[in-house]
Here is the input.
Amino acid sequence: MNARAPAVPVVAPPTAVVVSRRRELLIVAGIMLSLLMGALDQFVVLTALPNILKEFGQPNSGTFVVTAYIITSTVAIPIFGKLSDIWSRRNVFLGGLAIFIVGSMLAGLSQSLPELIVFRAVQGFGSGGFFPVGIAIVAVSFPPATRARITGLLSGVFGIATVAGPLLGSAIVDNSSWRWVFYVNLPIGILGAVAILYALGPLRPSIVRRFDVVGAALLVTWVGALEYALVQVSDAGWAWSDPRVLGLLFGAVIGVAVFALWELRGAPEPLVPLRLLSDRIVSVSGGTTFLVGAVFFPLATFISLVVGIALTPPGASSADTVRDVLYALVLPLVAGAAIGGQLLTRLSYRVQVLLGLLTATVGMLLLRGISPTTPPWQLAFGFLPVGGVVVPLIPLGFGIGLTFPVFFLAVQNEVESKDVGEASGLVQFLQSLGGSVGLSVLASYATSRFDQIDPLPNPICNTPAGASQPVCLPYLLNLPAAEVDAYVSVFTVMVAILAAAVVVALFYRGRFLGKAREGRA
Here is the structure.
């Protein structure tokens, strides 16, 4: 899940395409509808996920419904971004949108969890197309003053999604089939596509560039090897010591090394501009945001699962409960990002990131204290949270939100103007990569811990029919406690990841003062 705009800023050419007021409105509406659809989808699916897993009878396999989306989105971001520099930006955008719509339709038709995971991967690949290319279309279609206003509107889409997504997800689950959390994307996406087709020209780049085929192949290869190994550990029961797992992980390490060498030394036009990591601010921002992504994206997924499956009060709707608990994470996140943007002109990079990370670490330490008897919330005066799962989520969301503005603005302030787009895209790629790798690794670890705590006595116990089988009774009675204990172990690992992010952030220097590069903090 990504709670903030996964936009890859692109430096605009000296002149922008001239469009009429009517076409301008249609272009903006088409892009906003597409971004809203993608942003809503993440929160809607998180809210409905426990119900989906219960219907398929696999309550501990749901993390890969989210992981598949993030993995393919991560791979697709640089691929579609580069393709939009070579072909028609409009057509590449519409291609990503079409892939997402088809993936949504197939996800809604899924008859098993493996099918759903595959079709979520299709959705994720499509979203990696229209997110960055939509921002690029704005950059080349409008003059600077208009562009700034439109970019603000597009950023607001993600604020809307954080509020509306959980609400929409719980409403769909309470009043209809969970399949509509995917079908709802179809009319929104089609409206956006029609608006773009009618109002926007092809937007073919004036300079012909080459696509980094080798880099794309290497990227897909090493990410695929890594994720396949982790999925097999989690879902197929392969041991970490299994030669097949070790072989895949070794292949992924070799793939990363070859990919980095190619992007740095061999690629005429690199798919991912790793050369920029030689700059200290870029490398520190990239490393810190990778680690933060490895915490935030898994956190939202695991919270929705542990609350929906283990901590929802008897008689309450799991979708409604997950919705309300997610608000305790995402609303402070939005507030933290907004306040962080204001603080950036007053605090050094190092101080602000450390402030955010330490605040988040306090929340994560508190989250380790949940138990099977922890309520979702305890309120004083009817509105003030004083206990429950929501209390640690507030500093967690707020602290992570404080760090978000630093990563991108520090990089944009540091590099030359010609590199702003590529540097911002690199940081976005690393954050998304951290989320996909973190979610996969931690999901596999959570499954391993769950199997140790509550081993499955019979395969039928993970099916809807298992609830009526006597052999399954001990397993089902212990399920909530085992679920909570497994994820508490994961939250402990997350504390260590945040500690590593603190260490990396200590290497920040400078502060945000226009384009002037400042001395050490």
Notes: The two ends are 33 Å apart (CA to CA). Residues 1-15, 515-521 have pLDDT under 50 and may be disordered.
